[in-house]
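call fold(seq) -> tokens
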Amino acid sequence: MFFFNLFRKKSEQETDNSMKYLIVGLGNIGDEYAGTRHNIGFMLIDAFAKAQNVEWADKRYGAVAHCRVKNAELTLLKPSTYMNLSGQAVRYWMQQDKINVENVLILVDDLSLPVGKIRMRGNGSAGGHNGLKNIAQLLGTENYSRIKFGIGNDFPKGGQIDFVLGKFSDEDQKIIDDKLDYVGEMIKSFCLAGLTVTMNQYNKK
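ret:
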């Protein structure tokens, strides 16, 4: 009976953990970075938190909010570590809230996609993105899910840093605003239906 109870407690814990999710929007803190292309992850997760009617609290390594989507428990995170050290915050909150790596979803900007184009992936290289690179380094794997949001690449040679730290045009901002609810639906689908179903449904659109 003793071993049965231990097994049952372990099984219940594993079941609970399987419905815990960490949703991370990448960006840089500070007024000088607000609204910049590199901060699209912050914009996306801010919109999702607002739609879920939850507010942010300043916690270790970032701003954190919690919400539920049906039977899924979500930890929302905006790292305060700056982009290049995003992995510190991701690793800490995975451990803090006992979240499995397969239930981690990163919202991130992507230079290789046109503005507003969205792609979900379950793994892959950082593609030169320092935030993703640090996450992979500290987690010891590139097998974590991400929603890549296109910011375009209309900049001259050598102008990448100024471009990603610049702000969207009014036209581009409208495209982004029109996609905020769409990304929110992707997040909910990831938590309720899983990665494969979500990619099959949303990557085709």
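DSSP finds seven helices and seven strands in the chain.
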